Amino acid sequence: MITVEMNAIKREDLGKQANKKIRDGGLVPAVVYGRNKENINISISGKELIKTLNATESKENTIISISIDGTDQVRKVLLKEAHLDTLTSAPLHFDFYEITEGEKLKLVCPLNFIGKPEGVKNGGVIQTLSNQISIECIPEKIPNNITVDISNLNIGDTLFVEDLPIEEGITVLSNPKSTTISILAPRVVVEETPTEDEEESAENTKESEGAETQKEESDK
Question: Per CATH, which fold does 3-98 belong to?
Fold first, then answer.
């Protein structure tokens, strides 16, 4: 579990004009909401937030501890959605979900495959069908990722969701029979050798074409 700290400003003015003024000041309007929680509108540094999350292993599952200036409020949240400008990709609005101690959260967790499979050493090819799974756990159990050693996989082997090493306290929501990785046999290109009949047919065609050519020349 990764936790980062950031500061925010509580905002009172709402609406398009107020939000534009906030963005012109270098901040991004945002809202914090949660189950049985009172919504709170804030302004936060978009550049700082993106820089901080990009520096973490799993920005989607990073817990952000937001201290709101001028109050004693500290909200622990997850970034649920970043609304971006369609042309510039600049952040326009952030949606944060406030977490509650002991509350189970549904998350998407990335898979970190390590090791070189035996099958690849023997000429096989890795086919990755999924590099993430859906899980449910309490905030204290949120993993940065799930590390999976695939070095023992041979040609023809398949790694299913049910084969993943899952820590206690984490419930997997993805289909246990879903494939994450397979080791495929190398593709072999076979050049077909013409049969005797095909060779004879080709020779006859050449001879026929040659005879036609000689006849045309003699007619001239």
Answer: Ribosomal Protein L25; Chain P (2.40.240)
Q: Is 61 helix (H, G, I), strand (E, B) or coil?
A: helix
Here the tokens at position 83 are: 């609304």
pLDDT tens by residue, 11-21 = 887 888 888 88
CATH topology of domain 105-184: RNA Polymerase Alpha Subunit; Chain A, domain 2 (2.170.120)
Paired residues of 109 in beta bridges: 133
Assess contact for 28 and 18: CB atoms under 8 A. no
Read off the pLDDT of residues 134-184 as tens digits, 9 standing for 90 and up: 999 998 899 889 999 999 999 999 999 999 999 999 999 999 999 999 999
Return d(Cα 11, Cα 27) in angstroms, integer. Answer: 11
Domain with CATH 2.40.240.10 in the chain: 3-98
pTM of the model: 0.70
Choose among 7, 147, 117, 25: nearest CA to 70: 7
Q: Please give the Cα distance from 174 to 154 (Å, whole number).
A: 24
